Amino acid sequence: MLGLEIFVHSVKMVLRNLKEAMLVSLVPALMGSVAAVLLFFLFDNPQKQFADATASSPDPAAVATILGFLFCLLIVMLVVMLWIVVSWHRFVLLEEYPTGMFPPFRFDRVLAYFGRLLMLGVLALILYFPASLIMGAMAQTSVLVGILFWLALVIFLSIGFYRVSPILPGAAIGKTLTLSQAWQSTAGASGAIAVLVILSVLFQMLLQFLSSLLLFIPIIGVLIVVFANMLIVPLINVSILTTIYGVFIEKRELA
User: Fold this and answer.
1) 250-255: long-range contacts (C-beta < 8 A, 24 or more apart)?
2) Greater pLDDT, 17 or 61
3) Contact by Cβ (8 Å): 13, 243
4) Which end of the chain is more exposed for a tag (fewer CB within 10 A), N or C?
């Protein structure tokens, strides 16, 4: 079953390359954390500003400060995330092994990746808005029908995302794909992708359950949970996109 094979391959991809995963993500994540701390002090204690901004008579300056802090923090998080994602795609697809502590920051590839990610987000919103109106009307008649429609919509959008997702790894490695090319390359794979979506959701639920159990173990359990949620899980999700690109665009065999 192709969906299962893609999922298993993506998990193995990360577990087999933990050293490279650390090299790709550790320093960018630390730099992002340091930047977040510096922003906290630069914006003069956003916690206090937030309290002022949510008071009965909010201070306009406090509102502007907290919005500025959140915007800058979002930019930092986005840059770090895209730096790691692009580096991982390039490592897997181009065998561009990380050297030293700093993975190369390829501004043009990061910008291209962001542009395509933004385009997919806009398309998802365009599709979701009219569907949400229909869902609301259905929920007025029956809550159960509304929930089922919402689940079907999420699965539909997820399948659509994975089918056009090759444009993302393509942007990371400098091999541009259009939406129509990506869609045509994954023709006939909707069933396998639906299986992949379900497996991904079940995997996330299992990890959340295991994380809740590990949190009861002092220090070591917390460290394992943080390591898994900050490194392993995100890279597995990125590896799914990488594997889809490898299978449907480059016609690679799954080992």
Assistant:
1) 250/93, 254/5, 254/6, 254/9, 255/9
2) 17
3) yes
4) C
